[in-house]
Amino acid sequence: MTEPMRVETDVLVIGSGAAGMYAAIEAARAGCNVFLIDRSLIGRGGATVMAQMTVAVALGDEGPDHWSHHYQDTLTAGRGLCNEALARLLTEEGPACIKEMDAWGVGWARKDGKITSAFAPGHDRPRCVYVDFLSTGPAVSSTLRGVVNKTKSITRKGDLCVVDLLKADGIVTGAVAWHLGSGAPVTISAKATIVATGGLTRLYRRNSASSNMGGDGYALALRAGAPLLDMEFVQFFPIGHLAPRLIGMDPIMWDPFRYKLGGKLLNNRGEDFTQSYGVTEDGKYIITRDVATYAIIKEVGAGRGSPHGGVYLSFQHVPEAKLREAFGPVIDRLAENGIDLTKQAVEVAPIAHYHMGGVQADVGMNTEVPGLLVAGEAVGGANGANRLSGNAITEAFVFGREAGRTAAKRVKEMGALPSSSGTAREAVALISSDGPGNSPNTAEMLEALQQTMADDVGPFRNGDGLVRALHRIKDMTGAIGSTPFGTGAAFDMQRLDWFDLRNMLTVAHVVTQAALNRTESRGAHQREDFPGMLPEWNVNQIVRLERGNIAIAREPASVSKAAAQ
């Protein structure tokens, strides 16, 4: 363990996906010094770099469109629970961010000089831009990294695991982090702190994001006094790859194929089953994610699933020439994995992909706690009970930019920060503490938590399973105790697992309790024992930490009655 380090900055940004990088850029060009940190490599962790597909935005280059149409589609997908102000911000400001990214050289796909828009389920017209159908996220990340690297007032630091936010006089004044490479505590003082740590998909055994998406930001904000909302709404991507084995390719890669070529979802009888769940696709891709997830799980439950527990996705009806025209190099990579789409179907099944809930914030990305802002998927409310396809990266751009702007305004208006030495000492002592002997196997505990969430808090839930999950989560929370395992030396993975479990168990508890409370089915939250959407549940569930205990209250959703229908 080396000596504690101290950093002072105007704006601290925690998380370096698209939202975090955009926030850092915006705050820097407003004249602030920015400290951009991540527990991974800067700009290479999180969800953005793994996103392959499209970005929803009403550009109107190829045909008539307006943000208000995108806004209405977002509200409809959200099943009556969207925060209208956030949904409007996302859709209205999206085009400006797309054009700025274009000016930075991201390389949006074009046709006849105009940015191309593709159709995606839930939209009333083609509205989703892309770089190419399998590289949009990496291109976005690379472009933002380039701008960040050229901005002298942004200091970047990876391998920093934030342990707790600092507070003084009710104000967030920065954070204390554990530097993985040295084992040293790092105290960061900041006039504005932006949490842009993404979602919580790591809570599930099968997930589409990187391994640092364990809900860190939610837990940090909750412990700092900020409320969370709509935590029960976890979106499962319906056609995550299941079999045959796929090496070096993203499990959600099949969405682009369905965008371009349709593809048929088949059960083990060879039947196209989507029409049995109210959506006749007829070779097109129009089924929304929540309905597709429902349909697939119901087919599997009825004994009509594939050998590995999913269903079949078939492109066997598509000529090889058409496959190669659409996805030439990808077809060769699939062949290296022993997959020939002209001769075989692949098995797909739902996979944890995105979280609609998050930290409650206003349109300036302010939380209830002064000095604490949020951005990207860390923000709850914009997407209600189910996110519209393509809104994730748009949300990262718009909310990141807005958080950077608001943080810069705060910095200019602030005087000296109050002292947070007391909370800093507590966090540093936690990082520096000696671990207990004979501690449990943290890797096994992480796997057990993921399995519990997959089994009992997955796409389909019931009261018995949710109660069972709560008991297991509480048992594991007791097992980890209040003192980190391990020695705290450089790259002590046991200690990192402990900090991860501390956050993940908190967030898992919140998700499970909120799901147990909501006795209806709506969007991504489906209760087998309470089928159907109920008007009395047109409410947002607000989560707070009161004297160390989870407390959940209900508030009427702000969305209009028309959007809830």
What does this structure look like?
Residues 561-565 have low confidence and may be disordered. Helices cover 36% and strands 19% of the residues. It has helices at residues 18-29, 67-77, 84-103, 136-150, 216-223, 254-261, 289-301, 320-336, 391-413, 421-432, 442-456, 463-480, 493-517, 561-564, and strands spanning 5-14, 34-37, 55-56, 110-111, 114-115, 128-129, 154-157, 160-168, 171-179, 185-195, 228-229, 234-243, 264-266, 311-314, 346-355, 358-359, 372-374, 460-461, 526-527, 539-546, 549-556. It is an alpha/beta fold. Helix 1 (18-29) runs parallel beside helix 9, helix 3 (84-103) crosses helix 9 (391-413) and helix 12 (463-480) runs antiparallel to helix 13 (493-517).
**What's the count of strands?**
21
Strand content: 15-25%
Q: What gyration radius follows from the Cα positions, in whole Å?
A: 23 Å
Global geometry = globular
Would you identify the regions where 5 or more consecutive residues have pLDDT less than 50?
Answer: 561-565
Q: Structural class of the secondary elements? A: alpha/beta
| Helix share, percent | 25-40%
By DSSP (H or I, 4+ residues per run), the number of helices equals: 14
Mean pLDDT: 92
The first-to-last residue Cα distance is 58 Å
- How many strands, which pairing sense, and closed or not: the largest β-sheet? 7 strands, mixed
